[in-house]
Request: fold
Amino acid sequence: MLILLATLSACTPIVKIHGQEPNPEAIAKIEPGKTSRRDVQKALGSPSTEAIFRTNVWYYMSERTETVAFLEPELLERKIVAIVFDNRNIVEDIFTYTENDRREVELISRVTPTAGNELSLIQQLFGNVGRFAGSGPQ
Reply:
């Protein structure tokens, strides 16, 4: 009976939450055109990250995954809340992105040619022999 219980408990899914998902009620209280950057930080806390190219966007990111036994984790939910501020540090807009908003990025596998010689193993081993003049005592 104990072995059966241990086996069944191993199959119980483990749900993990990564990141920081703001409270939906706190987000609903943020009013574009009225709420300041300081008020957002008080209500939601520090952002997960800030935009690199635009300093006036805060991102709150979260992800929930479920793992059963030894299987790969399955994504249950991924959410990104972006809060855009204007030049006066007042909320301009709020965007919510989910897994459905993602876009695939096509990678390009090009190789940049480099100038120079390709040396053989022997050339690499003995290439410096005789290149340096000894500067012994004179």
About this structure: The chain has four helices and five strands. The mean pLDDT is 84. Residues 10-102 form one domain.
